[in-house]
Amino acid sequence: MRCHLKKVFLLAAGLLILTRVYIYMRRAESGNLKGSLIWIWDKETWVEDLEGHYLHFNISIKVLAGVFHPSKKYLTVGLSSVKREKGRYLQDTLQSIFSASSEEELDQMVVVVLLSDFDVSWIQQTLEKITDEFHMRLSKGQLLVIHANEDNYPPLTGLKRNFNDAPDRVSFRSKQNVDYSYLLHFSSNLSQYYIMLEDDVSCSKNFLSSMREHVGSVGNSKWVTLEFSKLGYIGKLYQSRDLPILARFLYNFYQEMPCDFLLSHFHRLLMQEKVIRFRPSLFQHMGTYSSFRGTFNRLKDEDFVEEVADNPPADISTNIETYQTNTVDKAYSQGLEYFWGVSPIGTENYILVVFHEPVLISRAQIVTGLDGKDELVYADVELGKTLVKKESEVECSGFDKLGSLQQGQFNEAAVQKLVPATVACLRIRVTAAQTTWVVVRKIQVWTVKADQTT
C-alpha cells in the first residue's frame, strides 16, 4: 500500500512540474515573457520526498596559504591529504613535483593541496611544515593550501555497503570522493588543464612538458580523460571546463563506489569509450603504507620512468627479418610494443636510427630480451656523424663506438663526454652470430637542448 501511494505521489509531483513548464512556455509564446526561454527551478516544485534524495552542493573552502595568480596557468596539479596512521609523504610529494620541473614549467603550473582531515591540530602542524619548506612557491602563486570544514560534508556514516565493504571502508572511500569533489570544484577556474594526484607520488622529470607534447599529439580529437599512470586515479588529466560537472558527479554518487570506479564511468558518460593512456607513466606511487588503516601497500606502476627519453624524430630501419607486425619502429616508440626479429642473426645485421635533424646526445639506453629470453647477446652501439643520401636508401658514416651490450642491455649516461659533437644517426651493430630470435624492447635517446649548451 505504501509503495503504491509513493508511486502515485511521485507521479503527481511529475505532472505538477510538467504543468508548470507548460504554463511557462504558453506565457512565453503569448508574449507575456520577453527574450529567450530560461529554465528556472522553483523550490516549491520539490516535494518533501524528492528533497530527501537531493544533495545540496554547498561548499565553503578556506585558503590556508598561498596567493592567487592573476592569470590562468596551463596546468593545475591537485592532491588531497589526510592524517595517516603510518608514514608521511606529502612533503616528499611536493618536493618531487617542484624538483622535477624547470622554473619555466613552474610558471605555467599551480599545485593545490586540500588538507582534508578533520583533525585541527594535524592541519596546523602540516600547514606550518608546508609554509616553512615551500614559502617561495606559496608567494609566487605556484602552491595553494586549502581546507573544507567538516560541516560542509554530507553524511559519512550509515552509508550503503556496496561491494560488501566494511562500514569504515565505505566511510573512508565516500569521504575521499567528497574530498576530490571539493578539490575539483575549487580548481575549476585556475588553469586550462587539471591533473589528479595522490599525496604519496613521485614525478617524472619535466612531466609538464611531456604531457603538453602528448596533449598536442591528440590534436582536435575529442577527449575527456588522458591517463599518465595506470594506477587508480593517479595521473588522470582533465580539461578544466569539465571540472564543475565532474565535481558534481563525484559528490552526487559519493557513497556508491570508489573514486577510480566513478572516474572510469565519467569519461564513458561523456562519450569517450576507450581509455587513452600514454606510456611511459609519468607518476609513480611511492607510499609504503595506505592512508586507510595504515595497511602495507606494494602498489607500483611498472611503466614509470624517472626521466622520459626525448627520442627525437627519426627513421628506424633494420636488415633483421621481422616477425609478423613487430616492426623495429616499435622499439623506438616508447610504448609497450617491441621489435621481434627472426634468427639466424649474424655480423651483417644491424638496427639503424637516422635522426631527421642532427642531435647532441646526452644519454642512450638499449633494452633487449623478454622474460629472460631473446636477448641480443653480441652488439656494439655506435654514433655516426655523416649522412649520405642515395636513390633508395640513406647511409651513415663516421661512426664512434659508445660501448657494447652487456647481457642484452646498454645504458650510457655520459654520451656527451664520449662524443661531444652532434650526430646524424645511432647504430646497433651485431658483432657475433646467434641462433636465437631477438627482442628489442627499448631504444631510448636523451638529447641536450639548445639552451643547455655552453
From TrEMBL:
Give one Pfam family: MGAT4_cons
Residue ranges occupied by any MGAT4 conserved region domain in the UniProt entry: 58-304
What's any GO biological process attached to this entry? protein N-linked glycosylation
Name the pathway.
Protein modification; protein glycosylation
Every MGAT4 A/B/C C-terminal domain range: 314-441
Alphabetic keyword roster: Glycosyltransferase, Transferase
| GO MF term list | acetylglucosaminyltransferase activity
Q: Which InterPro entries match?
A: Glyco_transf_54, MGAT4, MGAT4_A/B/C_C
Coiled-coil positions are none
Name used for this protein in its record: Alpha-1,3-mannosyl-glycoprotein 4-beta-N-acetylglucosaminyltransferase C-like
- Species this chain originates from: Sinocyclocheilus rhinocerous
Provide the organism lineage as a comma list. Eukaryota, Metazoa, Chordata, Craniata, Vertebrata
